[in-house]
């Protein structure tokens, strides 16, 4: 019986093959940011209020214009079929079962259309901008035609971060799997490896456009008929530019510590970004969220919702759709309990006053 999200990871460490395990769990270089994403949550304390009638606690909230059962959603992670044969289809079904949002990676091993068929739940598409703009335009249009409710444009990946285990393993997508959203010509290119790099880094370098700039954000917005969010904002400066660019939200993310190492944890910069957008657009967060109390802290510091990356992969590997459902149930129960114990009966009851620095000494 798994008692917390880390138990799913420990199971995967024993059972998943090395190529996939290392790819999923690794971060960039020394993984300073990976560790920091976790530790920074632990340096915050919760300031509980008592005598608040928590006989009925509700985690229901709104995500852009949609109602969800919980502010805990699913981040885009590439190549989920390495974790389980049903991959993204199983994840989408679990998200629908628990009435939360799934963000599908552009680099999924099940196509946009197949995921849409598998689940009628709330879905967003994570978008990479390809050197080939027609490929990019088609992805946006296919997602819209399939009922995806928003586009999350990833802005922290002009090139792939340097993940040492993938370099040593010469990461490759197993030959029976494909990047399902692309033509067979594109699919052929992942795998094997260039000298001194992972197969994936070489593929990214060949496909993704490192010239991406604010002008391209305007271009994506001109095509999209659904809200466009920027995923990978870490500073007040970029948050203000995002508001000026007219996007519909930002996701505070350091890509799970997989892109540039030594950037701050996401929870440490959340409030800076939240203050910079000044209520103009919603702010979301991902990175290191493993506990109901982490979710509570992020909401108190301004996040409307949070997204889980690696825990979904570990749960998917454990038991497919049922595994992801079980994992969501576990952390949702932790959030419900944290809310009850902190005196918050609804998401709107969680305020800035409910968190503080761990070692805060009150003035006497
Ligand atoms: C294996 C893996 C693959 C990922 N693939 C993508 C991707 O295709 N697109 C993207 O925008 N982010 C991707 N991410 C980043 C996640 O969306 C998210 O930012 C991060 O995993 C959150 O941190 P967590 O894993 O600590 O929860 C990936 C992360 C992991 C671990
Ligand atoms: O591995 C990743 O973190 C990731 O985001 C990615 C980027 C490009 C292709 C596949 C995955």
UniProtKB/TrEMBL annotation:
Annotated binding of glyoxylate, by residue: 23, 128, 163, 255
Keywords in alphabetical order: Flavoprotein, FMN, Oxidoreductase
InterPro entries associated with the record: Aldolase_TIM, Alpha-hydoxy_acid_DH_FMN, FMN-dep_DH, FMN_HAD, FMN_hydac_DH_AS
Binding residues annotated for FMN, in chain numbering: 76-78, 105, 126, 154, 231, 253, 258, 286-290, 309-310
One term under GO cellular component: peroxisomal matrix
Domain FMN hydroxy acid dehydrogenase: 1-360
Cofactor dependence: FMN
Keyword Flavoprotein (UniProt): yes
Enzyme active site: 255 (proton acceptor)
A Gene Ontology molecular function term of the record: (S)-2-hydroxy-acid oxidase activity
GO BP annotations, alphabetical order: fatty acid alpha-oxidation
Superkingdom, taxonomy of origin: Eukaryota
SUPFAM superfamilies noted in UniProt: FMN-linked oxidoreductases (SSF51395)
Family: Belongs to the FMN-dependent alpha-hydroxy acid dehydrogenase family.
Name of the protein in question: Oxidase FUB9
Organism: Coemansia thaxteri
């Amino acid at each position: 019986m798994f008692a917390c999200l880390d138990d799913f990871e420990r199971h995967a460490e024993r059972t998943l093959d090395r190529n996939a395990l290392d790819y999923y769990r690794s971060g960039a270089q020394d993984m300073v940011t990976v560790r920091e994403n976790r530790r920074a949550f632990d340096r915050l304390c919760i300031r509980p209020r008592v005598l608040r009638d928590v006989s009925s606690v509700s985690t229901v909230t709104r995500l852009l214009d949609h109602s969800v059962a919980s502010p805990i959603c699913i981040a885009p992670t590439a190549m989920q079929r390495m974790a389980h044969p049903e991959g993204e289809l199983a994840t989408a079904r679990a998200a629908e079962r628990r009435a939360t949002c799934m963000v599908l990676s552009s680099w999924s091993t099940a196509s946009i259309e197949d995921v849409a068929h598998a689940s009628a739940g709330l879905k967003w598409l994570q978008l990479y901008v390809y050197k080939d703009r027609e490929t990019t335009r088609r992805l946006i249009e296919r997602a819209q035609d399939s009922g995806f409710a928003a586009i999350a444009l990833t802005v922290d990946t002009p090139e792939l971060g340097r993940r040492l285990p993938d370099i040593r393993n010469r990461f490759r997508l197993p030959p029976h799997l494909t990047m399902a959203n692309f033509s067979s010509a594109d699919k052929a290119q992942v795998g094997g490896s260039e000298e001194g790099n992972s197969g994936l880094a070489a593929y990214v370098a060949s496909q993704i456009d490192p010239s991406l700039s604010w002008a391209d954000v305007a271009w994506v917005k001109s095509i999209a008929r659904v809200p466009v969010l920027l995923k990978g904002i870490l500073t007040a400066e970029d948050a203000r530019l995002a508001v000026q660019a007219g996007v519909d939200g930002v996701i505070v993310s350091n890509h799970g510590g997989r892109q540039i190492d030594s950037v701050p944890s996401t929870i440490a910069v959340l409030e800076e970004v939240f203050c910079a957008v000044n209520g103009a657009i919603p702010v979301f967060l991902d990175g290191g969220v493993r506990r109901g109390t982490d979710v509570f802290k992020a909401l108190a510091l301004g996040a409307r919702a949070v997204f889980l990356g690696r825990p979904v992969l570990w749960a998917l590997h454990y038991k497919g759709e049922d595994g992801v459902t079980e994992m969501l149930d576990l952390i949702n129960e932790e959030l419900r309990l944290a809310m009850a114990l902190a005196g918050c009966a609804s998401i709107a009851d969680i305020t800035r006053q409910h968190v503080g620095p761990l070692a805060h000494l009150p003035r006497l």
